[in-house]
Amino acid sequence: MSTSTTPAPPPGTQHPPRAPVRPDPPPRRPGWRRALRRDWRLYSLAVLPLLFFLVFRYLPMIGNVIAFRRFEPGGSLLGEQWVGLRYVRMFLSDPTFWQVFRNTLWLGALTLLFCFPVPIVLALLLNEVRRRSLKRFVQSVSYLPHFLSIVIVAGITLQMLAVDGPVNHVLGWFGHDAIRFVQEPGWFRTIYVGSEIWQTAGWGTILYLAALTTIDEDLYEAARIDGANRWQQIWHVTLPGIRPTMMTLLILNIGTFMAVGFEKILLLYNALTYPTADVVSTYLYRAGVESNSFSYAAAIGLFEAVIGLVLVTSANQLSRRTVGTSLW
User: Which residues pair with residue 69 across a beta bridge?
Assistant: First the structure.
């Protein structure tokens, strides 16, 4: 019985290389038409929000053109005559504008400095409360001012701080003379920031309390094993855990830095407090609506919007480079 053997390749020769195995191609994503037909009910929910932003946010931007054109009530919606940067030069050379601009910076900085960290501190304190009934009571009391209209909040503030109001009555018990809080320019910033903290602090804790629930409990257990006390756990575990939420809200607050609350200031201020209370938004109201200088007001509003865009873009870039969290 004979067997056949394959002759060995001569020395110095190599086997021919095998063809590389190609991986399976990734599955193709469905086209947007197919996804739209499949999930049209889900996409239909976005129609009304998109229409809202289109009608009330983007279409009005066309009106910014009157900042460079002379607009007369009853005439063309886009102005009668091109005047270039005339209105920009007008408000840049107006000393009243720079006074209200400084007031806006002051109120915006104070609001950001005091109103931003208070919800974080309140959320951390509520997170440490173990009695559920007490925690719910504190949350309900702190949330309540958010649901009051600004008119009611301003009315309560004015009544509390009136010359014959409860605050001055308490001061009278201690032998102090009545203080004209509402008429004194030096008190306006304190009144505004204090009312803003009272109205927004409780509601602002909701996002932070939701962020606290996402922190892994194993991190706290590991910190306790390493000997960390409660304050060290908050500093090294809790705050880093909610840092993305903190930075996102900080960027959004910086974006609205120049848009200090128009309605509340309009309800709280008066002619006596203009030196510290008059801001860009209220100045725009008087210049545009009361004085019918719509082109002048549009130029100031466009300037304010550009500053807000620069602030939010800069804050986003700084946050991305320092902590790695950004909006885009």
Answer: 82
Q: Considering the entire predicted model, what is its pTM?
A: 0.79
What would the pLDDT profile of 197-226 be if each residue is shown by its tens digit? 999 898 889 989 999 988 988 988 998 988
Alpha-carbon dihedral 188, 192, 195, 200, rounded to 10 degrees: -170
CA dist list (Å): 293 to 268, 274, 307: 24, 20, 22
Q: Closest Cα to residue 281, out of 303, 296, 261, 299? A: 261
Least confident of 64-68, 78-82, 116-120, 236-240: 78-82
pLDDT of 7 above 60: no
Report which of 107, 46, 54 is spatially closest to residue 281, judged by C-alpha positions: 107
Calpha distance 68→305 (Å, rounded) = 15
CA angle (190 as vertex; 185, 193 as ends), nearest 5: 125
Statement: residue 109 has pLDDT above 60: yes
Task: Please tell me the distance from the alpha carbon of residue 207 to that of residue 225, in angstroms, as a whole number.
Answer: 29
Mean pLDDT score of the chain: 85
Asked if residue 187 lies in contact with residue 194, where contact means CB atoms within 8 angstroms, the answer is no
pLDDT given at position 9: 53
* Cα distance between residue 81 and residue 70, in whole Å: 5
Question: Which residue in this structure is represented by tokens 């949350």?
Answer: 139
Closest CA to 193 of 101, 106, 109, 111: 111
pLDDT tens profile 44-60: 998 999 999 999 988 98
What residues are paired with 199 via a beta bridge? Answer: none
Average pLDDT value for residue range 312-321: 84
